[in-house]
Amino acid sequence: MTSKYIPEKTKKIVIERAFGRCEYCQAWMHNALHSFNMEHIIPFHISEDNTLENLALSCGGCNSFKSIHTKANDPVTSELVPLYHPRKDKWNDHFAWSSDYLNIVGTTPSGRVTVEKLRLNRTGLINLRKLTLLIGEHPPKE
Q1: What is residue 110's predicted lDDT score, i.e. its pLDDT?
Q2: Per-residue pLDDT at 40
């Protein structure tokens, strides 16, 4: 069985590639109250894949809500669709900011299920977005 251990060099690359932000909710690592995780996009117990292509930087909340899920039912169509995949998908193709920049809006079926499943508009994130908006750190620049 392959080890779940992720070398520090790999972690550093994942953090730099994500610009220090959660690849799902876009929260900044340096503003986090809880630790960030090296999230396995396809769960490790399924793929045993620790390669860069299967790792995403994730805040503790998004990582916890995503858990082992890779698909969910679209709240609009009820169709089973894949969650947003940070290595294969572009964030802006699936999400947009609300007019006040406080909420993430899913613009595709994958975006909608990800917003819902990972609770990308949970109260703590909205409060953090309000504060980082005031200091010019939100919304994140591409």
Answers
A1: 98
A2: 95
β-partners of residue 58 are 37
N-to-C CA span, the chain: 38
Give the C-alpha distances (Å, rounded to integers) separating 78 from 57, 105, 113: 28, 17, 10
Contact status, residue 101 vs residue 64, Cβ threshold 8 Å:
no
d(CA 1, CA 134) in angstroms, rounded, equals: 48
Chain CA centroid to CA 116, Å = 12
Residue 56 CA to residue 43 CA, distance in Å, equals: 11
Q: What kind and span of H or E run contains 25?
A: none
Mean pLDDT of 10-33: 96
pLDDT at 1: 41
β pairing state of 55-59 and 71-73: unpaired
Three-class DSSP category at 122: coil
* H-assigned helices in 1-142: 8-17, 44-47, 60-66, 91-94, 109-117, 123-134
